[in-house]
Amino acid sequence: MIEKEDSMEMVLNKKAVEELAEQLQPCVKKFSIPSLKSIVFEIVKTDVKDSEENIVETIG
């Protein structure tokens, strides 16, 4: 794992990628995967805005 000031990079094996892909859906939730039990992933609500700051889509 490589930590930077405002981000983090992880190198995952194929099994971890497959487990993570099964969980990734555009809905608010927290989850962990068997390959990375000590890490909790959190998907949060995100508002996508246009150039005038109008919300055009909400994800999550």
Descriptive account of the structure:
- This protein is of the alpha+beta class.
- Helix content is 17%, strand content 43%.
- It is built from 1 helix and 6 strands, in the order ββαββββ.
- The strands form 3 sheets. The chain has a two-stranded antiparallel ribbon with strand order 1-2. A two-stranded antiparallel sheet has the order 3-4. The protein has a two-stranded antiparallel ribbon with strand order 5-6.
- It starts with a strand and ends with a strand.
List the helices and strands and how they pair.
Layout: E1 2-3, E2 8-9, H1 14-23, E3 29-33, E4 36-43, E5 46-49, E6 55-59
Antiparallel strand pairs: 1-2, 3-4, 5-6
